[in-house]
């Protein structure tokens, strides 16, 4: 798969190009999307601010944050709120394995807001590879899936 990148002075995430995987199980497509998102976040940090996106099914988006969690990443993530609301309505997978060290409070806050936004909209949310401090702040263990149900299940 090849992608054309337009280099500008502003920080914005690289646009996803096509579907990362059209074959395999959902778990395989999800895993391939995480790998692609991490790669996109690392490939051109001057353009992507270390944030990569990849769609893997209708309503399913993988997001990766790579590098040293700074203000550029926070701005890039904040700019993605509306897009994620449109595109990640079924599943939202966050991969933080590419973060270098701990991240600052602003990055923790925006990641938490994105997670809560998707959860409250009824999307399934997974967080992978979070540093220990971030895991504690988000109140979740890595690779934990969150599901919101409209009604309590009846047993």
What is the compact description of this entry?
This protein starts with 25 loop residues before the first helix and ends in a 9-residue tail after the last strand.
Report on this model:
The protein has 155 residues and is of the alpha/beta class. The protein contains six helices and five strands; from the N terminus they run ααββααβαβαβ. The chain has helices at 26-43, 45-48, 71-79, 81-87, 105-120, 132-138, and strands at 51-57, 60-67, 91-99, 124-128, 144-146. The chain has a five-stranded mixed beta sheet. A hairpin with a 2-residue loop joins strand 1 (51-57) and strand 2. Helix 3 packs parallel to helix 5. The protein is globular, with a radius of gyration of 15 Å. The chain starts with 25 loop residues before the first helix and ends in a 9-residue tail after the last strand. Residues 1-19 and 141-150 have low confidence and may be disordered.
């Amino acid at each position: 798969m090849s992608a054309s990148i337009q280099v500008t002075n502003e920080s914005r995430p690289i646009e996803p190009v096509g579907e990362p995987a059209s074959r395999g199980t959902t778990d395989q497509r999800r895993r391939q999307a995480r790998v692609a998102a991490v790669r996109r976040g690392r490939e051109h940090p001057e353009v992507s601010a270390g944030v990569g996106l990849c769609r893997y099914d209708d309503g399913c988006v993988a997001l990766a944050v790579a590098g040293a969690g700074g203000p550029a990443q926070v701005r890039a993530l904040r700019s993605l709120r509306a897009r994620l609301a449109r595109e990640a309505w079924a599943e939202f997978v966050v991969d933080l394995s590419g973060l270098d060290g701990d991240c600052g409070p602003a990055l923790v806050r925006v990641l938490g807001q994105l997670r809560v936004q998707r959860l409250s909209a009824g999307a399934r949310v997974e967080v992978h590879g979070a540093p220990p401090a971030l895991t504690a702040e988000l109140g979740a263990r890595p690779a934990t899936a969150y599901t919101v149900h409209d009604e309590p299940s009846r047993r």
